[in-house]
Amino acid sequence: MIFGFRDRLAILMYHRVLSTPDPFHAGDVDALAFDWQLSVVKRYFNVLPLTEAAERLKRGTLPRRAVAITFDDGYADNVEIALPILQRHGLHATFFIATDYLDGGRMWNDTVIEAIARAPTATLDLTALELGTHDIAEVAARARVIDTILGQLKYLPPAEREQKCNAIAVHIGTSLPDNLMMTTTQLRALHAAGMEIGAHTLRHPILARVSDEQARSEIVGSRDRLRDLLGHDISTFAYPNGRPGVDYGRRDVEIVRSAGFKVAVSTARGHANSNMDAHQLARIAPWDKTPLRFALRIFRCYLEAPPALAF
To answer: How far apart are CA 158 and CA 112, in angstroms?
Structure first.
């Protein structure tokens, strides 16, 4: 099969790989799905480490049907579940780490998800937090409420967002897991296994909503923390949430560039090509439920026009 373009790269974006399907994490794959997805990728595409793929894209030496695999945030299941599957298939991935959540931290969205998923009542009254009252008697209803509240909180200032998430957890009053994110030992094991580690800020803010000083601290601080932990320079970065012109802007791209990162990825949907800024490469989210649809999504990505940046 020769179908494909030498100047187009499909970068797959994952967050978690769960042990079993979970209705509260519908956008994340489970181990069985990730396994067959890697089987499809290995059979029909040419998988390269992200840094190598970006360099070869620039040089014009990318193989046809090129793919890179990436993970955002730094979940422990990336090491516990995803890594053995990657190793079994002989494939490489890049893992972007929000460093302040290492060793027992919990991301703001997980506080909301885990608290509402465990709520012991059929009704959730969050009117005191200006978040309404919700029926959560059924699992599907809980999942919808979680999505609604995450949407209401996502673009709040980071401190206010954190405060409201914690207030939701206190109001519900149930214990929450503290082992969702990697430990530094797991991070080093991932690196020792030959996987690439990239930066993803300290605390995953929406960069477009923070000051110049905060943005620089988040971007450079995550780079420095990973460099200290792993003992070498960090060359890749992923923008939190990642929509150009909405979640990050030109200022943030320039901070990333000046911080010495060689490659940065967004969540603009589509393929990356040789005309695209290496500090704003597009990605696709492989959420399809069957091997055929999954493969077709990647093939279609090569054919579609690349995303237009908002600035």
So the answer is: 15
DSSP letters along the chain, please?
A: ---S-TTEEEEEEE--EESS--GGGTTSEEHHHHHHHHHHHHHHSEE--HHHHHHHHHHT-PPTTEEEEEEEE-BTHIIIIIHHHHHHHT---EEEE-GGGTTT---HHHHHHHHHHH--SSEEE-GGGTS-EEE-SSHHHHHHHHHHHHHHHTTS-HHHHHHHHHHHHHHHT----S-SBPPHHHHHHHHHTT-EEEE--SS---GGGS-HHHHHHHHHHHHHHHHHHHSS---EEE-SS--BTTTB-HHHHHHHHHTT-SEEEEEEES-EETTS-TTSEEEB----SSHHHHHHHHHHHHHSPPPPP--
Complete domains list, the chain, with CATH: 8-104+179-303 (3.20.20.370), 108-172 (no CATH)
For the chain (length 311 residues), average pLDDT per consecutive 10?
71 98 94 98 97 95 96 98 98 98 95 96 95 96 96 92 95 94 98 98 96 98 98 97 96 98 97 94 91 95 84 69
Whole-structure pTM value: 0.95
